[in-house]
């Protein structure tokens, strides 16, 4: 049994991740979206911390770097962050957010996520960012694939949770960002 703390467990992704982990017999501490919760203190003593949080009232770069620093400082064994698909590569070396037609109004939020990923990348922590390869939606198939960006793909929260918990149980990706899509 793995001890898992899920930050953002009141949101759609976090709720599903916690439910799948509990159904598989893991000990899960669910922490809602309250950005006032101190991640370093709450994650201490856990094997894995899953971060599925956002605070839209704050500057995204400030929020995501602060959250990443707190998770690294916690000393938790593994950090898994729910990412955003525009940070995946649209072509080799080019993220979707870097494309000239990417909507400017979403750029700051995406770059805030990227700033948090840089904090993880500069640390000694065992981390992984798992992102949908397209939009959340569709009907759960109970199957998923790890793959590249395809904004036409869909991913259900249920299938996403399966991918996250499978990675917790059998860690195969480290120090990187991966994309996940549902398989019909």
Automatic annotation (TrEMBL):
GO molecular function: oxidoreductase activity, acting on the CH-NH group of donors, NAD or NADP as acceptor
NAD(P)-binding domain boundaries: 40-171
Domain of life, source organism: Bacteria
Identification of the protein by name: NAD(P)-binding domain-containing protein
Lineage: Bacteria, Bacillati, Actinomycetota, Actinomycetes, Pseudonocardiales
